[in-house]
Amino acid sequence: MIDSKALVIFSGGQDSTTCLGWAKNRYREVVAISFYYGQKHQIELEQAKKIASALSVPLELVDIHFYQQMVYSALTGDPMAMNAPHRDNAALPASFVPNRNALFILLAHSYAQQVKAHTMVAGLCQTDYSGYPDCREPFAKSLILALNQGSDQQIELLTPLMYLTKAETFALAEQEGVLPLVLAESHTCYQGSSTPNPWGRGCGLCPACLLRAKGYQEYLSTLERSTHG
Ligand SMILES: [Zn+2]
């Protein structure tokens, strides 16, 4: 157990729920921060509260919905555009929110100073989300370096899922003891559907649900292979 405090950037989704379990098993004290930025899938935040409370983690919920005024994303705009390219950058998916992760990390870095956390944990992952440039490691590393330099801090940013596939993230959740919470409570669906499925809650049709369902299938077949051979 590491004798310090960790702040988890927590959305209530599969990845950050896994990170919350990971941090709980490693740090003496864990706190979490969630952001409301006008996402259609607000249910994510209701689930975030439930999950944080189930893991006895204090959760700070921050309203930054003004951000919708500045950027376009299908996550805050037209959900029917979800499977199309981004309106303002055709190379990116419609669900991309420009600078969202930069904003989350910036705000979490400010909050970390207030609560005296020297470690931040984020569920950024560049394996499956290659469509989101702000999930990649060089971005995360350079941003935390800039923030530390700009505020004379030494806060580290850990990204335990960075090179895991979705199937490996399911396996990590199992290892950290949070797989039942991931399946029953975590929420990633872009449409805000809370329909229960074997792989968790969601519509089963949006890109986030498709990725999650596919990852769960892969996770199950890996389990089967290791049981039978
Ligand atoms: Zn969905």
Automatic annotation (TrEMBL):
One Gene Ontology term from the biological process aspect of the record: tRNA queuosine(34) biosynthetic process
GO molecular function, one term: ATP binding
Origin: domain of life: Bacteria
Names of the cofactor(s): Zn(2+)
UniProt keyword Ligase present: yes
Matching Pfam families: QueC
EC numbers for this chain: 6.3.4.20
Catalytic activity: 7-carboxy-7-carbaguanine + NH4(+) + 2 ATP = 7-cyano-7-carbaguanine + 2 AMP + 2 diphosphate + 2 H(+)
UniProt keyword Acyltransferase present: no
Keywords on record: ATP-binding, Ligase, Metal-binding, Nucleotide-binding, Queuosine biosynthesis, Zinc
List of residues binding ATP: F10, S11, G12, G13, Q14, D15, S16, T17, T18, C19, L20
Transmembrane residue ranges: none
Annotated cofactor note: Binds 1 zinc ion per subunit.
Listed pathway(s): Purine metabolism; 7-cyano-7-deazaguanine biosynthesis
Residue sites binding Zn(2+) per the record: C189, C203, C206, C209
NCBIfam families: 7-cyano-7-deazaguanine synthase QueC
Family: Belongs to the QueC family.
Function: Catalyzes the ATP-dependent conversion of 7-carboxy-7-deazaguanine (CDG) to 7-cyano-7-deazaguanine (preQ(0)).
Annotated protein name in UniProt: 7-cyano-7-deazaguanine synthase
Organism of origin: Candidatus Lambdaproteobacteria bacterium RIFOXYD2_FULL_56_26
Name of the gene encoding the protein in the UniProt record: queC
